[in-house]
Amino acid sequence: MQGSNPLRMFNRRGYTPPITVARLVSILLMVVVVGVTVASTADAAGTSTTHMPPSAFQQSEDAEALMLDEPVQALPVVDDARWSSAWTDSTSGAALVWIIFLIVLGFAGRPLARLLFRGFPDAGQGFARIVLILGAAWLVWALASYSVIEFRAIWS
Fold it and tell me: C-alpha 32: how far from its chain's center?
């Protein structure tokens, strides 16, 4: 009989995963605590940003020059940004599109997550979406940084 492993029922390969869920949660909690401590220390030291009242900006002579000639919704740039309005005009339609998108991301990212997190009990199933999103974002960023692709809207 093996030792008392709480993840034994998920352990079909005969080895213990290198990191358990408890360790992962404790690492995340430490990161949050350190972040809150650093933020509160910065606030106590008075290094936080000071906010100017909106009236300071409105009294400027250049305020008229910054105003748009027409409403924002009438600008062609904003009109092009609504390419998905046929699917996302209603809240339920937008939620359905988003859920389907997340399911597709989960299936598409599963092989890469399984490769990267094979030591985890679920073989990285929970990380499939985020791995694919981060990988795609990094790829677009790298290609745009090296001027392989031009970073602009496809429809413009």
Answer: 17
pLDDT value of position 36: 65
Tell me how far apart the alpha carbons of residues 138 and 126 are, in angstroms, rounded to a whole number: 20
What is d(CA 129, CA 109) in angstroms, rounded to the nearest whole number? 6
- Residues in Cβ contact with 59 at an 8 Å cutoff, skipping those fewer than 6 apart: none
Our CA angle for 130, 136, 140, nearest 5°, is 145
Contact (CB, 8 A) for 97 and 88:
yes
What gap in Å lies between CA 112 and CA 21, rounded to an integer? Answer: 20
Token pair for 107: 């299936």
The two most distant CA atoms of the chain are separated, in Å, by 81
Q: Hey, CA dihedral for 65, 66, 71, 75, is it positive or negative?
A: positive
**Global pTM?**
0.41
As given in the structure block, the two tokens for residue 141 are 């960023």
